[in-house]
Specification:
This protein is an alpha+beta fold and 263 residues long. 34% of the residues lie in helices and 11% in strands. The relative contact order is 0.11.
């Protein structure tokens, strides 16, 4: 009998607490503004964090409150920005899609190996041991941490062991750039025609010893190409995408290391 009474008491208390919470919820509930609800409804739902906020809803709320600008959602692109602008009543300029690119062609065929790594298949773990097994300490570690975090399945390893990004699948969230311990993955314009696929800032003589396809900072791409979009700084060439790319093919041709790629 005592057990039955205890059961009844607990059930009644539970019912009263439930009714109390339901009443409190109805009284304390804050109705969302219509514009915020409309924006939340059109968000891509990737929750990738590329916008700098915890998720799509958090970003939409920040835009609604005037704490963030429209256009930070890479997965949504210009189409989403335009819709958000319409909801908020503001004009939004179109931006070119940015995609990830692995600035390294190093693989066992062209890059030296200092030791046989048998640890976790994780780039950040490998980098803790003498900055990884590769002789080039600025290159890709090829263990696929970026593959694991890519929400779009845009990153893979090819037959040579190189990590590559499919720019058609890439949503531009930037997760891969943040997980890479060597900063090998960077964002470039979707329309980029040329890329210097190297991340090594060491002097050319050292680069030659470490990798057969690393940039040696010879400046041929900069000095021998008319109106060159290539700039060499700190021993490494890069592309100024604001410049004319009309003569980029010549740079590809004369590069002694063949580290300038045409996409």
């Amino acid at each position: 009998m005592a057990i039955f009474l205890a059961f009844i008491v607990i059930a009644v208390l539970g019912l009263l607490l439930g009714l109390g919470l339901s009443f409190a919820d109805s009284k304390l509930k804050v109705e969302k503004a219509e514009k915020l609800e409309q924006m939340e409804a059109i968000m891509p739902g990737a929750n990738c964090g590329g916008c700098g906020f915890a998720g799509c809803s958090a970003y939409a709320e920040a835009v609604y409150k005037g704490e963030a600008e429209i256009g930070l959602c890479a997965p949504g692109g210009n189409a989403l920005s335009e819709k958000m602008g319409e909801i908020m009543g503001v004009k939004v300029e179109e931006k070119e899609k940015m995609v990830a690119f692995v600035f390294c062609q190093g693989n066992p065929e062209v890059t030296g190996i200092d030791y046989d790594y048998r640890g976790m298949k994780d780039c950040n773990a490998a980098s803790l041991l003498l900055s990884g097994p590769n002789s080039c300490k600025a290159g890709c570690l090829h263990l696929g941490s970026c593959i694991a975090v890519c929400p779009a399945g845009a990153i893979s390893k090819n037959e040579k062991g190189n990590i590559v990004v499919d720019r058609e699948k890439c949503i531009g969230c930037g997760k891969c750039t943040r997980i890479c311990p060597n900063g090998v993955i960077k964002m470039i314009p979707y329309s980029a025609k040329y890329v210097v696929a190297c991340n090594n800032h060491e002097p050319g003589a050292l680069v030659r010893k470490e990798c057969k396809v690393g940039c040696i900072g010879c400046r041929l791409c900069q000095n021998k190409v008319e109106s060159s979009p290539f700039v060499v700084e700190d021993n490494l060439s890069s592309v100024d995408y604001s410049k004319d790319m009309a003569n980029g093919d010549k740079a590809v041709e004369i590069c002694p290391q063949k580290c300038i790629l045409k996409r």
